[in-house]
Write a structure and sequence with these properties.
Layout: E1 6-9, E2 12-15, H1 18-41, H2 45-69
Antiparallel strand pairs: 1-2
Helix pairs in contact: 1-2
Length: about 80
């Protein structure tokens, strides 16, 4: 069996390999970039939240999905 990328840590997963760390960093860079681009044209905090939601939530969902599929499964569903 291949080495696990993530380990279950409560309700979330923590990275335990360089591939997982790279994936988390790329996701965070994407989320920060989206926030900066949306916030530049927003007029209020709610405007910013509505603007980043369709990008950040799916990105984090994909990250959690990959983490669940590449974890060792010692506590995950």
């Amino acid at each position: 069996m291949a080495r696990a990328w993530f380990k279950p840590w409560g309700w979330i997963y923590r990275p335990v390999s360089w591939q997982a760390i790279l994936l988390v960093l790329l996701t965070l860079v994407f989320c920060v970039q989206v926030f900066a681009a949306v916030d530049r044209h927003s007029h209020s905090a709610s405007d910013t939240l509505y603007g980043i939601f369709p990008f950040v939530v799916p990105a984090l969902m994909v990250l959690v999905w990959v983490a669940s599929k590449t974890s060792d499964g010692a506590g995950g569903a």
